[in-house]
Specification:
By secondary structure, the chain is of the alpha/beta class. The protein has helices at residues 10-21, 33-40, 51-60, 70-76, 97-109, 126-137, 158-163, 178-185, 197-228, 232-240, 261-274, 280-304, 330-340, 353-357, 393-399, 414-419; strands at residues 2-6, 25-29, 64-67, 79-82, 114-118, 144-148, 168-172, 192-195, 311-315, 344-348, 364-365, 378-381, 404-407, 423-425. An 8-stranded mixed β-sheet has the order 3-2-1-4-5-6-7-8, with helices on both faces. Strands 11-10-9-12-13-14 form a 6-stranded parallel β-sheet. Helix 1 packs across helix 3 and helix 11 packs antiparallel against helix 12. It starts with a strand and ends with a strand.
Length: 429
């Protein structure tokens, strides 16, 4: 099918590329001329495993192209996907400016029946507003359908999540666009859930908030484990074997971050507030998440006492592994908290150092993870990168003034670390 994707951020670019990969004819549109120029010349604006190869392959095959021209995209394609950002406003509510703007641009370019699909994460009832807007600004006689098709991809696993989705949600108020939507997704062999638009929109906010809740739950259990001497990883393993619970997203740590969970949680609380429901359960999820960082910083100050002029090595800056994204990263927040106490930091991240440089100043960026501990008083693990498990522990132990590690992601085995002579503090064990 001929598809246009408006917005070439994480969601738009990966979606467009994967649609091309399964044989659709895709145009990715963005108003950022520099980004489109970069993409058209074979460059990729983000790090996402597997993406670069797929973009190159599909551009070469003539199935994927890039443009800054929305109206051309609207005219050429049968289905138009909106994948523009929905950033938070200072009060936590969603800023729908970009969606509204794009809806008007689409309206202005409509000449015949089109399916307009919202992929961005939006408050419930946005689809209705998009439909009203297109009707208001579009030509009177042209028919269209608005569909909600939320995206559930995780950064770092975006291509895999897109190619093998757990489910595809299609929210629509008329049966007309269903067949076309099913055709688009047929090659992905995923269960398809057809709902009304409002339910589809709610599925996204309800899912992300539930996952955030799961993480805060295990972080709260981790606090209990620390007081009682239990081990949160064993508790999570025991809980996770119950199929109704599942082991995933039960990793205790320094709290969740990234550009989705904190934002979607605040948005969902705000959406509920606006319709008269006080979602206190989710407010507690936020409180626990903030407290998790406080407890970890306290663990460091309890051990090192005064941080002023202490040298601390930090492994990890990205908000999680397999990404170069440092937006709302707990690792960056941790670094800033330690800096505020006067600590001097040596930091390393396998992929996120370039992006971190823009927001984390006055630290020493170290290219080799094994050199981070050199001359430091302690080592901190802030991101769950798998490769940190291969750290040369013997070298780190000898490079530190005292072998002290604060493992905010429970990457190492506690008894093994203690056997090797480390003062080892982790989360919930
Ligand atoms: C999330 C959702 O998973 C995805 O479905 C949605 O489309 C976008 O938001 P993402 O933000 O890319 O994806 O990352 P995710 O892997 O969910 O991790 C989010 C945060 O939670 C990270 O900071 C991560 O370190 C943390 N986390 C995750 C934990 O602390 N413990 C866990 O068990 C899992």
């Amino acid at each position: 099918m001929r598809l246009t994707i408006i917005g070439t951020g994480y969601v738009g670019l990966v979606t467009g590329t994967c649609f091309a990969e399964v044989g659709h004819q895709v145009v990715c549109v963005d108003n950022d001329t520099a980004k489109i120029k970069l993409l058209a010349s074979g460059g990729i604006p983000i790090f996402e495993p597997g993406l670069e190869e797929l973009v190159k392959k599909n551009v070469a095959a003539g199935r994927l192209s890039f443009s800054t021209n929305i109206s051309e995209g609207v005219q050429k394609s049968e289905v138009i996907f909106i994948a523009v950002p929905t950033p938070p406003q200072p009060d936590g509510s969603v800023d729908s400016t970009f969606i509204e703007r794009v809806a008007r641009d689409i309206a202005a370019a409509l000449t015949g029946y089109r399916i307009i699909v919202d992929k961005s994460t939006v408050p419930v009832k946005t689809g209705e507003k998009v439909a009203e807007t297109i009707k208001r600004y579009g030509p009177a006689k042209v028919d269209f359908d608005v569909v909600s098709n939320p995206e559930f991809l995780r950064e770092g696993f975006a291509v895999t999540d897109l190619m093998k989705p757990d489910r595809v949600v299609i929210g629509t108020r008329s049966p007309r666009p269903v067949e076309a939507m099913k055709n688009i997704y047929a090659p992905f062999n995923a269960p398809i859930v057809v709902t009304d638009i409002n339910s589809a929109e709610l599925i996204k906010h309800a899912s992300n908030s539930f996952l955030a809740l799961k993480i805060s739950y295990i972080n709260a259990v981790a606090a209990i484990c620390e007081i009682t001497g239990a081990n949160v990883q064993e508790v999570a393993a025991g809980m996770g074997l119950d199929e109704r619970i599942g082991r995933r997203f039960l990793n205790a740590g320094i709290g969740f971050g990234g550009s989705c969970f904190p934002k979607d949680l605040s948005a969902f609380i705000k959406i509920a507030e606006e319709i008269g429901y006080d979602f206190r359960l989710l407010k507690e999820v936020q409180i626990i998440n903030r407290g998790q960082m406080d407890r970890f910083v306290k663990k460091i100050t309890d051990t090192l006492w005064v941080l002023k002029d202490k040298k601390i090595g930090v492994l990890g800056l990205a908000f999680k592994q397999n990404t170069d994204d440092v937006r709302t990263s707990p690792a960056i927040e941790l670094c800033q908290r330690l800096q505020k106490e006067g600590a001097l930091l040596r930091v390393h991240d396998p992929k996120a150092m370039t992006k971190a440089r823009a927001i984390l100043k006055d630290v020493t960026y170290v290219d080799d993870m094994n050199a981070v501990a050199d001359g430091c008083d302690a080592l901190v693990v802030a991101t769950e990168w798998d490769e940190f498990k291969k750290l040369d522990l013997e070298r780190a132990r000898k490079s530190l003034s005292h072998p002290i590690m604060f493992d905010g992601r429970n990457l190492f085995d506690r008894s093994e670390m203690e056997r090797r002579g480390w003062v080892y503090k982790s989360v919930g064990r």
